[in-house]
Amino acid sequence: MKKNRVLLIAGAGLLLAACDGGKGETVNLQSSAALASSSSSPVDEPLSPDIPPKEPFGGTVSIESLQRDFDIFSWQSFIALNWPADAGGNPLTGVTIGEQPGAMRVWQYYKESRDIFLPEGAKPPGWDQPFPPPASCGNDATKPLLRQVGKTPNVLDESAEPFQTGPLIDQNGQYTRYEILTNQVMFDYILDNDLYSKAGQTEFDAKAEFPFGSDTEVGSIMLKAAWKVMGEGDDPSLFYTTEAYVYNNPHENSGVTAACQLQRVGLVGFHIGTKVENNPQWIWSTFEHVNNAPTQGQTPDKDHYNYYSPDCADGGVDCTAVNEPPPRPWNPANKNTPPSQIERVIPIADDTAELNRQYQQKLQAAVPGTVWANYELISTQWPTAAGDVTDETGVPAPTFLANTTLETYIQGRVKQTSSSCIQCHNNAAMTNGKKSDFTYLLERAQ
């Protein structure tokens, strides 16, 4: 029987109960001194290509120590997903994450949303069958620049953030581009249940329930990646870069003309949703490039940021418009859009920052100068009361979580307004009105 984490308030003390079949054993939290000691202890796990198949909860009895467990889970997932892959999308053996920098990564062989939800609800190709890029991108396999070993370049056909809050403009005036992908477990569930079309969802007539992971098998994973086009002032050696079709999608905003160009792009944001046993609300891990933006209220410590100008002297940046979306019309073809001026609203927690330093050091020790040491975990959101029958969100911790490249304009601590992965995705539904299991992907069905 599954165990559920339940948090209880007892007098002035916070208690954690590990409940099994309704019988709870309640344990007092550790002292703050003990927590500080445990949170700064070294990470002993080696860098591994294995995605964690199960939740990290293993008997620890505090919010702080559990947060560390989930943060380690996030780092393990990030490293495994970004492991160099062979032409079949499997992690290469005999290498580590920082080696073979030109290789495709495991997650880049996942299915893009545009390959799943096709016009008129057509059935998508099988897992190993790529869907051709838009016509304006071309699909001539004889042109070597349009191919990468084992897979056509990904298509970055989105430039808008969730809920149409606005695009994110880098310091070169270029729109940030996004892609959403699923692993094969999630893709197979969509395909097997005909959830790729509105007609299939109507026939399904139930809420979606994507497969959990088990002790040995990885469950459903969905990813969202944010990319910036490499340009003036950017040092590509500091980013994981790849060539991708950068596509101006006419379906995003009126006035946009379809256009496509193969460009070198650098990874700036990486969001992982993982469904493992005991966590029906999923585990949400979000990473960023370390040079994205400074933290609000803190002195900027870098000369160059991806989305912030320290002196506001370049490119017509408006220093007063911090975390403000650019004015409409939104068109990625517009070369005159002023750069965004972005700051992180909620600082990275001290314990998470220390864990970041440990993993960055491990990555540097494995491959000196590796680009992967230039990424950091912002936080991991997880359900503290996963089985709470009165709250479908499972009382997430931390309460709010935002990535400056993915939820740029909804950062903060305002309930029902500021970004919270679990709170937000709990509202997701399919086109049939049924719950879609914490993903908005299924509403894309045609």
Explain this structure.
The longest helix has 19 residues, at 63-81. The chain has 446 residues and is α+β, with helices and mostly antiparallel strands. α2 (63-81) runs parallel beside α6 (350-366). The strands form 2 sheets. Strands 4, 5, 6, 7, 8, 9, 10, 11 and 12 form a 9-stranded mixed β-sheet that branches. The protein has a 3-stranded antiparallel β-sheet with strand order 1-2-3, with no helix packed on it. It is built from 7 helices and 12 strands. The protein is 15% helix and 19% strand. It has helices at residues 32-39, 63-81, 113-116, 184-192, 198-204, 350-366, 421-425, and strands at residues 3-10, 13-20, 23-28, 111-112, 155-156, 177-182, 221-229, 241-248, 259-274, 283-289, 375-383, 396-397.
